[in-house]
């Protein structure tokens, strides 16, 4: 007879919004997990397509224990995650968007890690980035920056954690609190708070797939992201090392505008935070070349 907690319950917090094309694959990946003691807590965030119907049918056919909910109006990610968390029972919590999915051994590998390292507050893994438009996958771009252990100063400086497939102990969340419903970058905010109190673990294998759709990922919306960055910078302004966080945010903005929006306005934004190093030199050259290229194309079109 198995001892209590030998195979503790894992709660998958499943959140969808207009994922009709993807949700069935996500739920199949949960059905085929090698670790069996799983419950699925599913919330659809007021999708305007058939996501909820497809997800409901897939869960009914999965054989997994589940609870299912649907918003009548769209709510923020943190509010939705807290709702799912409050309706879950698992010792371990795994938030998952339904346009992503897990490898078959994903849950088992992280439960195994916790058994070997009971002092850790959460564990994350590497992932593949999968482009739905091209069907190409690449290893997570953050992999060369992964760290584990007591990483508070590191995670405050830069969000290097691959969120897809991460697993958090319930008692960790009871210690640090639920997701901050005022934060637009709820994952980074949570990792900072966890890292302040607990070591963070890493299974350095690709145990999940992060779905990418051209022009349809929040991380590509710099106006949204900058509001999130500003909140993080203000919330943790008292922390030693926050200046390094500001430098990280400036680098993200510099790269984004130089790559995607080369213009005189973008150049002025870059010069406002300019630092004399090779990165800024390259981005400045890129944006100036982009300005001239756009000007040349405009003259060619309009003669």
Structural class: alpha/beta
Which regions have little confidence, pLDDT < 50, spanning 5+ residues?
Answer: none
Largest sheet: 9 strands, mixed
Q: What is the number of E strands? A: 9
The helix fraction, in percent, is 40-55%
**Helical stretch count?**
11
| SSE string | EHEHEHEEHEEHEHHEHHHH
Beta content comes to: 15-25%
**How many independent structural domains?**
2
Radius of gyration: 21 Å
Question: What separation lies between the terminal Cα atoms?
Answer: 82 Å
CATH architecture of the largest domain: Alpha-Beta Complex
Let me know the average pLDDT: 92
CATH class of the largest domain: Alpha Beta
Short summary of the structure?
With 303 residues, this protein is α/β, with parallel strands linked by helices.
Describe the protein's architecture and organization:
The protein has 303 residues and is α/β, with parallel strands linked by helices. The protein has two domains: 10-218, Spore Coat Polysaccharide Biosynthesis Protein SpsA, Chain A, CATH 3.90.550.10; 241-302, no CATH class. It contains eleven helices and nine strands. The protein has helices spanning 23-31, 51-60, 77-86, 106-116, 152-157, 170-176, 186-197, 222-235, 242-260, 264-272, 278-302; strands spanning 10-16, 38-44, 66-70, 92-97, 101-102, 122-131, 136-139, 167-169, 200-212. Strands 1, 2, 3, 4, 5, 6, 7, 8 and 9 form a nine-stranded mixed beta sheet that branches. Strand 6 (122-131) and strand 7 form a beta hairpin. Helix 9 (242-260) packs antiparallel against helix 10. The radius of gyration is 21 Å and the shape is globular.
């Amino acid at each position: 007879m198995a001892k209590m907690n030998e195979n503790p319950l894992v709660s998958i917090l499943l959140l969808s919004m207009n994922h009709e094309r993807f949700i069935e694959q996500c739920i199949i990946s949960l059905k085929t997990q090698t670790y069996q003691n799983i419950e699925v807590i599913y919330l659809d965030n007021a999708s305007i397509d058939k996501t909820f119907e497809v997800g409901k049918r897939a869960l009914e056919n999965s054989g997994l224990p589940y609870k299912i909910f649907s918003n009548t109006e769209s709510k923020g990610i943190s509010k939705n995650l807290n709702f799912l968390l409050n309706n879950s029972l698992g010792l371990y919590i795994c938030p998952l968007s339904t346009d992503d999915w897990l490898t078959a051994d994903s849950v088992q590998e992280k439960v195994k890690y916790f058994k070997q390292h009971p002092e850790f507050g959460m564990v994350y893994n590497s992932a593949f980035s999968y482009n739905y438009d091209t069907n190409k996958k690449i290893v997570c771009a953050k992999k060369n920056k992964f760290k584990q252990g007591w990483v508070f100063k590191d995670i405050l400086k830069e969000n290097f954690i691959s969120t897809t497939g991460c697993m958090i102990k319930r008692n960790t969340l009871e210690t640090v609190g639920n997701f901050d419903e005022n934060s637009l970058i709820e994952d980074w905010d949570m990792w900072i708070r966890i890292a302040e109190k607990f070591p963070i673990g890493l299974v350095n294998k690709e145990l999940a797939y992060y779905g990418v759709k051209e022009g349809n990922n929040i991380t590509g919306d710099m106006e949204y992201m900058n509001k999130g960055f500003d909140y993080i910078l203000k919330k943790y302004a008292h922390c030693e090392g926050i200046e390094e966080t500001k430098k990280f945010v400036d680098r993200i903005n510099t790269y984004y505008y130089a790559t995607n929006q080369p213009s005189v306005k973008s150049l002025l934004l870059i010069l406002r935070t300019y630092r004399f190093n090779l990165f800024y030199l390259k981005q400045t050259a890129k944006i100036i070349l982009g300005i001239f290229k756009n000007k040349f194309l405009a003259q060619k079109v309009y003669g």
